[in-house]
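Structure in, sequence out. Go:
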């Protein structure tokens, strides 16, 4: 048998089954032909000399007869069908796929766990199915399935217990086959008694083969079965009547009038459209001020509500692309109508809004709205008459005999064309649009997306600053210590004798008798040398001189620094 032919047949068996299931008798013959080729390959696998090697697999305290390994099967398929030469990409995956197709059609099954009919390239054990249970030799029957379930229910429930879906199937079959349930029970008892006379190994192999057969033909809910039959399709040609022929003629005429555009022109049009709208694409250029889905800041949604007093610049620029973009925005419609009222040509936009309300309104109000729109915009001497030609008005009057949501479609198309060619270009050139663009909002980008711990850090810094003021911030023009020193001169002299042991509570402030000139750039050691030694516990705070010189400062404020009393002795200063 040609290996290439077998490879092509088996690799497309799913396609054949899905295509041929449910067809007539000639299609069933093709399915049988496909199964014949698959079974011929399985027979070659079972050849004792050139087939897949079978051996007795020894496991813990048990011996499994007539089993083969999964990777032996995959290797045999690759050698027999020359998959490595015919498939350049992933030949191993192709061989595993073919093995899965054979397993799902019931030609071999896994030993032990029959719930999964998947082949893996590992050391899993599999066993060939008996030819009696092949799909082309035996067809499933409800009576046989009922006998199988009844046999298992009468055996050891811990070892041969039925699953939930099998219990439901048994109860359903008992109701369906109630007229011959005694015969089914008798057959089940006879088969159980015959199985007891067989050897244990043969009995286990037969039970596993029967269980695998019903796993393929009666799979659990949610599983895919390659042999499941679909309902027969009704392929009888329906005879066409006069209405069908008229509808077909109308469709053919419409297809003739449909414009034909070349593919290159379509691609060019798509590219131009993308380039035109790329500025407004949030996935490409981002959004301002920030993305609400990232920063949890809803400013973007607030600025782009359906109706706002001041639109954003990006929103106003979008109105200039096309009239459709303008009419899709409620704020754009409001501004467009405001401009047209100044030009005394707002009847077109009012008619457009009325027709849109008719299309989206309730069904019970359609007839009333149709007559109201006609009386307001299209009737002779209408208060807000729309400029339409006679043919369009006749078309509308004919459609009003059966009022619907689409009665004014012809008039709406004419009005839309007038706005697109006349009023819309004038709106874009008007001072009203320029003012909108000039006064539009320009949201700034927010760079901080996450602000975890910022408030805590600020509080910690401010608290530290209150506890330990920096002397450099008290000098110069940032703090006016002159006013503070003069105000403290008016206090009681007795307060100078009190002091606190905290440097943040200083009471004695005085003005020294002489000014000591010092440079701002002088080192701390030189500044300490210029401090008078009369009162070593007085701190001189420099400040700017009234002359305003940048390089000269005066020590105009003296702060009393608390000192330790001489009588106080720390415990660690004493000896012994």
């Amino acid at each position: 048998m040609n290996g290439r032919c077998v490879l092509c047949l088996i690799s497309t068996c799913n396609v054949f089954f899905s295509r041929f299931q449910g067809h007539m008798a000639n299609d069933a013959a093709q399915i049988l032909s496909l199964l014949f080729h698959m079974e011929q390959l399985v027979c070659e696998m079972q050849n004792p000399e050139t087939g897949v090697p079978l051996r007795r697999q020894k496991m813990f305290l048990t011996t499994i007869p007539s089993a083969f390994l999964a990777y032996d099967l995959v290797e045999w398929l690759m050698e027999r069908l020359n998959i490595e030469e015919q498939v350049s990409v992933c030949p191993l995956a192709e061989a595993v796929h073919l093995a899965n197709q054979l397993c799902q059609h019931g030609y071999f099954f896994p030993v032990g766990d029959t719930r999964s009919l998947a082949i893996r390239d590992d050391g899993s054990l599999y066993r060939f199915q008996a030819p009696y249970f092949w799909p082309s030799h035996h067809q499933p029957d409800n009576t046989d399935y009922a006998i199988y379930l009844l046999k298992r229910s009468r055996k050891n429930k811990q070892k041969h217990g039925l699953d939930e879906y099998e219990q439901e199937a048994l109860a359903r079959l008992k109701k369906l086959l109630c007229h011959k349930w005694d015969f089914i029970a008798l057959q089940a008892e006879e088969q159980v008694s015959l199985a007891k006379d067989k050897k244990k190994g043969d009995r286990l192999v037969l039970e596993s083969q029967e269980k695998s057969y019903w796993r393929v033909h009666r799979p659990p809910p949610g599983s895919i079965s390659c042999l499941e039959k679909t309902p027969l399709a009704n392929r009888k040609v329906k005879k066409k009547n006069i209405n069908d022929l008229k509808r077909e003629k109308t469709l053919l005429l419409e297809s003739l009038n449909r414009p034909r555009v070349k593919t290159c022109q379509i691609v060019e049009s798509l590219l131009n459209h993308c380039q035109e709208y790329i500025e407004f694409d949030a996935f490409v250029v981002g959004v301002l001020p920030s993305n609400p889905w990232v920063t949890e800041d809803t400013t973007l949604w607030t600025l782009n509500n359906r109706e706002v007093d001041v639109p954003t610049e990006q929103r106003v620029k979008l109105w200039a692309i096309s009239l459709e973009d303008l009419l899709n925005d409620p704020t754009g419609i409001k501004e467009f109508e405001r401009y047209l009222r100044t030009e005394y040509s707002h009847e077109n936009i009012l008619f457009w809004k009325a027709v849109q309300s008719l299309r989206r309104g309730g069904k019970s109000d359609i007839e009333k709205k149709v007559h109201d729109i006609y009386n307001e915009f299209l009737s002779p001497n209408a208060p807000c008459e729309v400029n339409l030609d006679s043919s369009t008005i006749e078309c509308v009057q004919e459609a009003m005999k059966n009022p619907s949501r689409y009665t004014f479609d012809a008039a709406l198309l004419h009005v839309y064309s007038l706005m697109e060619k006349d009023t819309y270009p004038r709106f874009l050139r008007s001072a009203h649009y320029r003012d909108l663009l000039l006064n539009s909002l320009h949201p700034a980008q927010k760079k901080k997306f996450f602000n975890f711990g910022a408030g805590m850090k600020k509080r910690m810094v401010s608290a530290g600053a209150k506890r330990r003021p920096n002397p450099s911030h008290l000098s110069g023009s940032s703090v006016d210590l002159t006013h503070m020193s003069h105000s403290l001169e008016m206090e009681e002299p007795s307060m100078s004798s009190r002091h606190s042991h905290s440097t943040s509570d200083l009471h004695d402030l005085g003005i020294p008798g002489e000014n000591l000139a010092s440079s701002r750039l002088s080192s701390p050691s030189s500044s300490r040398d210029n401090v008078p030694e009369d009162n070593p516990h007085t701190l001189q705070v420099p400040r700017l001189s009234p002359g305003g010189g940048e390089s000269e400062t005066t020590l105009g404020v003296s702060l009393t620094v608390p000192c330790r009393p001489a009588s106080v002795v720390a415990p660690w200063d004493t000896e012994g």
